[in-house]
Amino acid sequence: MTALRQHLHAHPELGYAEWQTSALIASSLEQWGYQVERGLAGTGIVATLKQGDGSKVLGLRADMDALPIQEEADRPHASRQPGVMHACGHDGHCAALLAAARLLAAPDSFNGTLRLIFQPAEECQQSGAKAMLEQGLFQRFPCDAIFALHNWPGIPVGQFGLLAGPLMASTDTVHIRIHGHGGHGAMPHQAVDPILVGAALTLALQSIVARNVDPLDVAVVTVGAVHAGSLSSVIPDLLDMALTVRALRPQVRELLLERIRQLTLQQAASFGASAEITVDPCHFPVLVNDAEHTAFARQVVLDWLGEQGLYASVKAQTGSEDFAFMLQHCPGCYLLLGNGPLEGGCMLHNPAYDFNDQALPYAAEYWQRLAMAYLR
């Protein structure tokens, strides 16, 4: 497992371009007796193995893609692809699920149908999960339940975090363009300054979470990019802003988007400017774990490791995850895998991050135990 994980880490591939990763996974599964369907959403894989009557169907999913980040760490298995690295641990997710697949390929391991879904492009705004669904994932390969996990720095190795209900936030990207009237920086009274409008709007947007959202709800409105002008003495015509918007309830998401629209239009008008608001059609919904399947996933941990195997402080996250799309179509659970303490390490999406290989046996054996428990 460690050798495979480190090989994948050294050869990362971006979303929808996981050709070598996909080929390695597919060839391994075929050798172990799985029926492998390649090409769903380009590089996606669905591998099926039936034992016994094959009636009950379980899906397990792992993501394959890396991030456009330059790795900043001196390790033997560091990325050999400039500007690309596995900064989120998808290399570990693939290695663990492959190890479990090999164990479960032994005769009489279970009674039912096991589907292993290796998904491309989880990190892309053009979600790989959504693309697989649009290409008929659950119509062609139906599942009774589906599960996935993600490594999580800060949770001790050997522990799992489980939470029923909302676990990961919805995410939207909002683009705002302020139309002013350019002019000379020395004569601002003859212009309508979009930079002034943008500055005022940035402050006003922070009032949405502070004053429009119930304090017991979770919401985030972050202005992540502002672009305008090129010379100190010139007031530009335009200012562009980009926002990320997060929520843990669909109703809160709708409120945030509506208030952003209202504030933007009215704030611009108050300065004599105008504005355009565009919400990217690609967005991730709230990831909601089904209560029954979360309880089942928790019981697998308890039967194996006892209470010490459960991370007691798990809570909903404002990060997002496109497995949410799959959970909208099939009940299941998304759980967190302990990747070790943050002290001396770093969080996901950091250029120095690395998956903790000590977590691999826990992830692989968990998948084996969960499959054998579900497909008795």
UniProtKB/TrEMBL annotation:
All copies of domain Peptidase M20 dimerisation, residue ranges: 173-263
Gene Ontology molecular function, alphabetical: metal ion binding; N-acetyldiaminopimelate deacetylase activity
InterPro entries: Amidohydrolase, Bact_exopeptidase_dim_dom, Peptidase_M20, Peptidase_M20_dimer
Top-rank taxon: Bacteria
PANTHER family linked to this entry: METALLOPEPTIDASE, PUTATIVE (AFU_ORTHOLOGUE AFUA_6G09600)-RELATED, PEPTIDASE M20 FAMILY MEMBER
GO biological process, one term: diaminopimelate biosynthetic process
Gene3D superfamilies: 3.30.70.360, Zn peptidases (3.40.630.10)
Species of the source: Aquitalea aquatica
Cofactor stoichiometry and binding remark: The Mn(2+) ion enhances activity.
Protein name: Amidohydrolase
A Pfam family hit: M20_dimer
Key words of the record: Hydrolase, Manganese, Metal-binding
UniProt binding sites for Mn(2+): C88, H90, E123, H150, H349
Cofactor or coenzyme needed: Mn(2+)
